[in-house]
Amino acid sequence: MGKTACSSEEGLNKGAWSSQEDQILTDYIKTHGEGKWRNIPKQAGLKRCGKSCRLRWLNYLRPNIKRGNISLEEEDLIIRLHKLLGNRWSLIAGRLPGRTDNEIKNYWNTTLLKKIQGKQSKLRSKNEKTKVTPKPHELDNIGIISVAADHAASEEKLNLENKVKDNIITNTSCQKDNSGKQAWNFKVEEFLVSDKSSDIDFWKLCHELSETFDSEEGGGSSTSSSSYGELRRKYWPSSCQPLLFSEEIMLEEWIKKDDIVGCTHQKLTKIDELLNDRLNWNSS
DNA sequence: AACACGCACAACCGCAGGTTT
DNA sequence: TAAACCTGCGGTTGTGCGTGT
User: Keyword DNA-binding on this protein (predicted)?
Assistant: First the structure.
């Protein structure tokens, strides 16, 4: 793969940008627009490499950039998103209007990490004293949730499923088995940071579909479905809007395991945490 | 006043993956 | 199809500033 090494290009300025350089770059981009970063230095008359121009524009010169004074709400959101996404700074920055990935990364490394480490060491020493061990779901990464369409299902259910599927997220992967059953897999964390996660209508749709599942379970469907239904009712808090996933797919995956209740509980608890987070964001 | 130290943040670097030729 | 090119990302480094000694 080709690589653009600024360091290998001679005669280029390095280090802090001067106000004149900033002005030249700003004027050029205002006239010609962003993109084609490699050509910008030559055309604008800057002794900088394209990557440096891009970085300067995106992190500093771009309009509507907020600088400094990260609020408590923003800080809280960064911590929550980092819990979900890890060091995916650009994704985190995407949920904080006006903030750049570089700023959030710096803020995390210099400020938040220390705060969190401080809290964790306090918690550790408390746990050591009281001999509390962390629950498994507190340590696990987030899994994948599946939405399935059972072709033998009612037309009403299918229509709802298709509506939900169309709305979830663009980069779902679709799998089909021999019986024609389909599953759309998507990563929870990607969904939660997408615009769709704050779309109330989408959640209403999910809720509606979930109710059709429940009513079909009540009508006496397969044993596995009702087992799942019981599990879901047991572990799903009534305060949460349910996120959809098919009982068939989940059970096919998990029933092979010896400890199905433990496994299901673990996954549902994680999903529950995510949804609680989402609901908290909406209410705050 | 001078120095050392730590912190915050801007900027750099290397890499990966997507796009173009 | 493969090489070249471009862009974006995350980790790391460099530097200026404030504070303590």
Answer: yes
